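ok trying again, last paste got cut off:
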Amino acid sequence: SSSYEDVPEGAQTPAGSHVEVLDEEGESFREPTEEEVLEYAEFVGIDPESEPHLLWIAREGVVAPVPKPWKACQEGDEVFYFNFETQESLWDHPCDAHYRSLIDKYRALGPEGEPKDVGQTPGSPPDSNDDARASAGGCEPTTRRQELAGGASSGSAASSPRSSRS
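nice, full thing came through this time. structure:
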């Protein structure tokens, strides 16, 4: 990770605050816990009880890497995302909208619209050639990395489940 000095000039940060750019380099694939999947599912609008066929989306989304040129940043207990090209910042992960659109698509298909490729288990993602899994703004689901190492949550119910992941 790096310090506030690495945040570009003009970034909106309060005077005297300390912003840390969280470094993802060298992080490898990890499987999310069931608790993480369920928490993220609820965050993006999946009802795990009535929509178990959509949980594969939450499983991918909760460990999605931050796409370039975005970086995860931390100020105190708050995690936000900063685009180093456009100077834009977001509270939600830049890929959350992509995963919400997948939810909308597969929700409309219903449980019967779930991919049924040979050798695939119920609740697993569609095959990698599926158009829904195609790259969307750098939100490729094929490379999963742990997003944050030891990030703390503010306890806000509206904050992304990622901000409390370790």
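cool. The beta strands are 19-21, 70-75, 78-83, 89-90. The first helix runs from residue 34 to 44.
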